[in-house]
């Protein structure tokens, strides 16, 4: 089965007892056993729930992976992976990282003895320089947040594997509809399913998908032992969202490209950041690695912080809000919202300046989105 077909059918088999085409939501904490320890594969919903199993099957199939563990949030998923490392290990990351991932590494894991090393340079060689015998994991987001830089997954996988480390790709921004990290050599794919996978801004969730079936066991153990699991209602909504992922990503990408093209050269806009623009530093790599350029666009305003604040306050279709990836368009000011937990000097040195606004371009009529930004500017 091809991608859009898998998105609609895998993990969504009709209910065998009633024929219900859409499987029921299994709202149960426990499962009645026939004899002690004799059950149908489920004994308690922290360790397993059929609704969750359906979502996990679906996500594994969409990423072309072996297996998946769903979590209560993207950060719970991220945390489950960091927990597999040990004190004294090192993780090498690209510096333009989701703020919460950076916070987890710096506030929780550094104290605990895990060393995070960051490079500001997208070139694979800059990662190689930070890798040594302590390095167990390379962690990247591509496209990155909010600078939308593109990292070469195939080159990074090679560097990781040569050092005996594994490569984790946070695929939240691209989704498997546009980018397949396992086919490029990655070992783990992480999602905040809160974003494009769910797609409707109505839930919080996360997932880790593995390519090698041997890697799932330690993650299932964390899922069961720590218990950061999603509830069946959220899982149902996530799985329902997945059915339209393919057409949503297509439309997000078309709208984002038109909007980015429109604001190139605008007098209030110093620069437009979008991997689909030929001036983007990794435009060519993005074209090779992704099947479309995605729905995220950043604008650097000529008027700095004041102009950015005014724009954020004046839009009417774009809602001023954290998060991204829903059908509705959102605008945000990373320096004071999603990236506020990163110290100002660190943030600015990484290019997240006060004039930067991030747009999650929705699937509305693009003319309305462009008109809305025009009137607000
Ligand atoms: C939102 C996000 C996360 C964290 O996910 P939550 O569901 O909010 O916990 C991680 N990575 C990226 C790229 C994100 O956008």
SSE diagram, text form:
Layout: H1 3-9, H2 50-62, E1 67-71, H3 74-82, E2 90-94, H4 99-112, E3 115-119, H5 124-128, E4 135-141, H6 153-162, E5 166-170, H7 175-178, E6 188-192, E7 206-210, H8 216-226, H9 232-242, H10 245-263, E8 269-273, H11 283-289, E9 296-301, H12 304-314, E10 319-320, E11 330-332, H13 344-349, E12 356-360, H14 366-376
Parallel strand pairs: 2-3, 2-4, 4-5, 5-6, 10-11
Antiparallel strand pairs: 1-7, 6-7, 8-9, 9-12, 11-12
Helix pairs in contact: 1-2, 2-9, 3-4
The structure holds pyridoxal-5'-phosphate.
Residues 73-75, 98, 100-101, 141, 145, 170, 172-173, 192, 194-195, 204, 206 line the site of pyridoxal-5'-phosphate.
What does this structure look like?
The protein has 377 residues and is of the alpha/beta class. The protein folds into two domains: 3-242, Type I PLP-dependent aspartate aminotransferase-like (Major domain) (Aspartate Aminotransferase, domain 2, 3-Layer(aba) Sandwich); 245-376, Aspartate Aminotransferase, domain 1. Helices cover 37% and strands 15% of the residues. It is built from 14 helices and twelve strands. The protein has helices at residues 3-9, 50-62, 74-82, 99-112, 124-128, 153-162, 175-178, 216-226, 232-242, 245-263, 283-289, 304-314, 344-349, 366-376, and strands at 67-71, 90-94, 115-119, 135-141, 166-170, 188-192, 206-210, 269-273, 296-301, 319-320, 330-332, 356-360. A seven-stranded mixed β-sheet has the order 1-7-6-5-4-2-3, with helices on both faces. It has a five-stranded mixed β-sheet with strand order 8-9-12-11-10. Strand 2, helix 4 (99-112) and strand 3 (115-119) form a beta-alpha-beta unit. Helix 1 runs antiparallel to helix 2 (50-62), helix 2 packs parallel to helix 9 (232-242) and helix 3 packs parallel to helix 4. The N and C termini lie far apart (46 Å). 48% of the residues are buried. The mean pLDDT is 96. Residues 73-75, 98, 100-101, 141, 145, 170, 172-173, 192, 194-195, 204, 206 line the site of pyridoxal-5'-phosphate (PLP).
């Amino acid at each position: 089965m091809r991608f859009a077909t898998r998105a609609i059918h895998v993990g969504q088999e009709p209910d065998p007892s009633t024929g219900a085409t859409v499987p029921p939501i299994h709202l149960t904490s426990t499962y009645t056993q026939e004899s002690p320890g004799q059950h149908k594969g489920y004994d308690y919903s922290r360790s397993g729930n059929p609704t969750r199993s359906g979502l996990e099957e679906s996500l594994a199939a969409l990423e072309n992976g072996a297996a998946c563990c769903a979590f209560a949030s993207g950060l719970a998923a991220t945390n489950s992976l960091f927990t597999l490392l040990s004190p004294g290990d090192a993780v090498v990351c690209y510096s333009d990282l989701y703020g919460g991932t950076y916070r987890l590494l710096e506030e929780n894991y550094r104290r605990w003895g895990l060393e995070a090393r960051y490079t500001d340079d997208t070139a694979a060689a800059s990662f190689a320089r930070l890798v040594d015998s302590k390095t167990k994991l390379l962690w990247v987001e591509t496209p990155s947040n909010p600078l939308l830089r593109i990292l070469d997954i195939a080159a990074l996988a090679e560097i990781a594997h040569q050092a005996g480390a594994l490569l984790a790709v946070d695929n939240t921004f691209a989704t498997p509809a546009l980018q397949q990290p396992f086919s490029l050599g990655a070992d783990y794919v992480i999602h905040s399913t809160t974003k494009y996978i769910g797609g409707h801004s109505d839930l919080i969730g996360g997932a880790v998908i593995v390519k090698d079936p041997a890697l799932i066991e330690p993650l299932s153990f964390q899922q069961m032992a720590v218990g950061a699991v999603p509830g069946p209602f959220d899982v149902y909504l996530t799985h329902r969202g997945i059915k339209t992922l393919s057409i949503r990503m297509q439309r997000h990408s078309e709208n984002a490209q038109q909007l980015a093209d429109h604001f190139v050269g605008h007098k209030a806009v110093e620069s437009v950041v979008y991997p689909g623009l030929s001036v983007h530093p990794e435009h060519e790599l993005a074209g090779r690695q992704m099947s479309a350029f995605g729905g995220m666009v950043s604008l650097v305003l000529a008027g700095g912080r004041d102009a950015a604040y005014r724009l954020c306050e004046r839009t009417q279709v774009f809602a001023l809000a954290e998060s991204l990836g829903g059908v509705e368009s959102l605008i945000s000011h990373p320096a004071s919202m999603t990236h506020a937990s990163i110290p100002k000097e660190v943030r600015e040195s990484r290019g997240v300046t006060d004039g930067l606004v991030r747009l999650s371009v929705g699937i509305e009529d693009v003319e309305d989105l462009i008109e809305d930004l025009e009137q607000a500017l």
